[in-house]
Design a protein that fits this description.
Order of helices and strands: HHHHHEHHHE
Strand content: 5-15%
Strand order of the largest sheet: 1-2
Structural class: mainly alpha
Radius of gyration: 18 Å
Largest sheet: 2 strands, antiparallel
Number of helices: 8
Number of strands: 2
Helix content: 40-55%
Shape: globular
Length: 160
């Protein structure tokens, strides 16, 4: 009963399984630049991006209709993510919170940076952005606290 209440991770740790720190499997440092982005910063960046998209949609596309602005904001968020992640590896919110989205291929266990500096390609940015706008994949996390949208796009959000 105790393992059921505390969850499978706690039960496994009691049996001696060592999970390590978040990002260790990916070869990322535990803290500092290059480490896995904490959830608080990621949610903060998403909040800033959503507020910006809602403001753009309300002012330019919905012409004062708040319900229509909410619908348009999803499309604006998609366009914002595709344009900024493919070019500067971060949305305005991510830049403000000092985060960056990099390709999983670049990861530091190989100590090799790809020819494009670790940015995602257009196809992977599009997959990640669409899944983020659907919202459900972004709410399903793995052991390293990466959302399903990041895992499917082979992307990692790191601190700068």
């Amino acid at each position: 009963m105790g393992s059921w209440l505390s969850g499978p991770r706690a039960a496994a740790e009691e049996m001696g399984v060592d999970f390590g720190y978040r990002g260790q499997r990916l070869g990322l440092p535990q803290e500092g630049p290059g480490s896995l982005a904490p959830l608080g910063r990621r949610f903060g960046a998403l909040f800033v991006d959503w507020a910006l998209c809602l403001l753009i949609a309300y002012g330019l596309l919905a012409r004062g209709d708040m319900q229509a602005a909410g619908n348009w904001a999803v499309l604006v968020l998609l366009v914002l993510n595709v344009l900024t992640l493919g070019t500067v590896a971060g949305t305005p919110g991510k830049v403000l919170f000092r985060l960056r989205v990099v390709s999983e291929n670049v990861l530091f266990r190989l100590r090799v940076v790809s020819e494009n500096g670790g940015r995602l390609g257009l196809g992977r940015v599009l997959v990640r952005s669409v899944l983020l706008c659907v919202a459900i994949p972004a709410l399903i996390w793995e052991r390293d606290s990466r959302g399903l949208h990041d895992r499917l796009a082979r992307a990692v959000q790191i601190r700068v």
